[in-house]
Amino acid sequence: MKIFQQSITLREKRRGFHLITGEILHAMPQISEISAGICQVFIQHTSASLTINENADPTVRKDFEMYFNKTVQENDPDYEHDYEGSDDMPAHLKASLLGSSVMIPIRNGRLALGTWQGIYLCEHRDRGGARGLIVTAWGE
């Protein structure tokens, strides 16, 4: 059993949904040493999240942002947690809806994503700052 783990700091990205598959692969070349295994990507934040979806058409990422902004609206007077601005509590809710980690099978030294799949960083804050990830890959 081989186990590899790497911390990654993603530069600050604007609010929205961003493909980060390439950044993960660049930071974890050891994935190529695993013929069968699992890769977990975990984000160390409560106002950003991760998901897997369409990697080709950027309008999908725009529509994700539109949908989540409609579904979890800002400036709700019932929010008590607004210390960091009107996008603060909605960002926490969006992050909980999407989740803090994704797991991808590794097959023949590659992430076994589908043809049209990529890993998204879901940035829910207007100014979220740099984001930390822990990427762990294990297998034979």
UniProtKB/TrEMBL annotation:
Gene3D superfamilies recorded: YjbQ-like
UniProt similarity note: Belongs to the UPF0047 family.
Name assigned to this protein: Secondary thiamine-phosphate synthase enzyme
Residue ranges of coiled coil: none
InterPro entries: UPF0047_YjbQ-like, YjbQ-like_sf
A Pfam family that the UniProt record links to this protein: YjbQ
